[in-house]
Give the backbone structure.
Amino acid sequence: MRPSGRKLSDLRPISIETGIMKHAEGSCLIKMGETHVLCSASIEDRPPPFLKNTGLGWVTAEYGMLPRATNTRNRREAASGKQQGRTIEIQRLIGRALRAGVDRVALGERQITIDCDVIQADGGTRCAAITGGWVALRLAVNKLMKAGIVTSDPLLDHVAAVSCGIYAGQPVLDLDYAEDSEAGTDGNFILTGSGRLIEVQMSAEGATFTRDQMTELLDLAEGGIAQLVAAQKAAL
């Protein structure tokens, strides 16, 4: 039995509320159970310097966690003057994941920055950030297209992410903190709406896993991604 009482293949309750931020070109608040992430998209009409005069656009991301997003207060990274390695790794992951679903030629020489701020954490924050970040990106691109600035849709497909793992010897979908902290194997799966793989992160946290178990987790992830994409579509 999972601590939440969910079935092995159940997602946590998910909601995506758009238009959360007045000034951002795209924004949403995504809730996956008790994990809540505010995602916003900001458009700059110039690419980063390394892409100047290439005809290519860029999508990047920044990620952060409020001090009381967790059980005990975390010191703000700005107070220490540098980002933690975990933060840098996650925001690079978000940027890579979202760029995989973008035609950068169609986007043109501009940059869209996705800001993902964790308001409350209960496991799976990076997955929620990617899933909500895509919605914010979609809304920002819609504005570019409505204004006629971009004529061909640069978003090739939906992008969403979900965690899976081996908890109490069973493969489970969408781990919350209680499961994540005790999981023998932990994985994050990032896929397109059509089911193509973008990135898989898997590690043996407390016990090694078999190839068959990895296949079971991928099967769970595919089912979860289909539900997340449906939630993205409903939100839009």
